Amino acid sequence: MSSSLHDRLLTPTELVRKYPAVELFCWTPSVVGALYNFGLMHGKRTEKANIYESSFIQLVGLANQVAANQKVILNTALYEVWTPQEIINEYPELIRVWCWDASTIGTILSAKLLNGSKHKEHSAHILLPSFWDLVNYVNKMKDQQKLNLGK
To answer: Which of 113, 105, 99 is nearest to 24 (CA)?
Structure first.
């Protein structure tokens, strides 16, 4: 990655202005909250939070990719669809990593990984393979972030 080019911390508003494609990603308070939980954002869980431009670009790219794949997956119905609670029961160790809370649910709904209601956690469903892709990505970003912050 050409690191110095994109390793600046920007506010959500600056990023949305700079990258209009973000409308697919639905930049909302719940997205800000989840990115903050993942350690990709620094500051407060509001417009005062900043995010590394490189992290943001990768996260938007992943959301777009998953949203594009989703149409195919839903049509072929090849994958199991689980509720958040089922995933937590099956993989309790993920809660530490993934910070499963309302803001996370809102984010993955925005990224079209979940289907159902934003308000009632257990009425939303998620495709398990998509969930793993996103968890793995977030873990990788968290590891890289420690290196960025250590410099």
So the answer is: 113
62-80 burial, b at 16+ Cβ within 10 Å, e below that, comes to: bbbebbeebeeeeeeeeee
Give the 3-state secondary structure of 72-138: HHHHHCCCCEECHHHHHHHCCCHHHHHCCCHHHHHHHHHCCCEECCCCCHHHCEEEHHHHHHHHHHH
Positive or negative, the CA dihedral 54, 55, 60, 65 is positive
Average pLDDT over the chain, rounded to an integer: 57
Q: What is the pLDDT of residue 79?
A: 43
Q: Are 51 and 141 in contact (CB under 8 A)?
A: no
Asked whether 33 and 45 are in contact (CB, 8 A), the reply is: yes
Helix (H, G, I), strand (E, B) or coil at 23: helix
Query: Which tokens belong to 110?
Result: 């925005």
With beta carbons less than 8 A apart as the criterion, state whether 136 and 33 touch: no
CA pseudo-torsion sign 81, 83, 137, 105: positive
Per-residue pLDDT of 124-149, as tens digits, reads: 555 555 566 666 666 666 666 554 44
- At residue 60, the 3 state secondary structure works out as helix
